[in-house]
Amino acid sequence: MDRRSLIGGNWKMHLDAESAAALASDVAAAAAGITGAVDLAVFPPHPYLQCVFKAAGGHLLVGGQDVSDQPEGAFTGQVSAAMLADCGCQLTLVGHSERRHGLGETGPVLAQKSRQALRCGLRVLLCVGETLEDREAGRARDVVLEQLRGGLEGVSTEAISRVDLAYEPVWAIGTGRTAGPQEAQEMHAVLRSDIEARYDARSAARMRILYGGSVKPSNAADLMACEDVDGALVGGASLQADSFVEIARAAARPEQP
Ligand code: 13P
């Protein structure tokens, strides 16, 4: 199956309202000139979602960096899936390593977030990835599969068609150290075959699996050439329109008739 690539810009806790809107409109303008099958998404800080949505003018997908596991209520500081949808979001990250490791979020809460988002019509970009310690101890694959299964607990075969994955090894995030194309391909293939085993071949074939961790214009093409790498989740390099769009160009696939 030919999958349309997806390039996501995770802006993390950077920018202000003015620079966020300017970046979105620059990326949207440049994206119009990309030929090929690639979707571009940006994940601004929550307070800037609406201004970024307006600036994107329908040319970019806009997503939340996180979502509450609860539908509504007395949950100070949390943002619900319905609120994200209301602000123009089509998708949300779930389980980014900065929340798993920095804030201690684990399987059951993440699965609840995934289900909430899917219930409200959002797509989910579920992030998984091992630490350097895990990799050196030879348990990278087990850790990543546990995160995958945990984050999708209770997600139906119907809903899985609205889930994409991002493999982001923690040791590659913001470090300048990237997994080599072969390391990325190996883990992506493991993830896809687990989806096939737990759901079905069709769901596995159409799921997009993004790589994340120090992706830049200089290494994007080699990563994107891997059979099971369907795009990238980009941190630092997404804060400049030029570098983000260059990565998107490297990920664009031939348009299907
Ligand atoms: P960097 O591209 O800055 O390494 O960040 C990756 C990331 O965490 C994207 O979600």
Could you walk me through the main structural features you see in this protein, from its secondary elements to its overall organization?
This protein is of the alpha/beta class. It has a single domain (5-251), classed as TIM Barrel, CATH 3.20.20. It has eleven helices and eight strands. It has helices spanning 17-31, 49-56, 81-86, 97-103, 107-119, 132-136, 140-151, 181-198, 201-206, 217-224, 241-251, and strands at residues 5-10, 38-43, 61-64, 91-94, 123-128, 163-167, 209-212, 231-234. An eight-stranded parallel barrel has the order 1-2-3-4-5-6-7-8, surrounded by six helices. Helix 2 (49-56) links the parallel strand 2 (38-43) and strand 3 (61-64). The protein is globular and about 45 Å long. The site of 1,3-dihydroxyacetonephosphate has 14 residues, from strand 8.
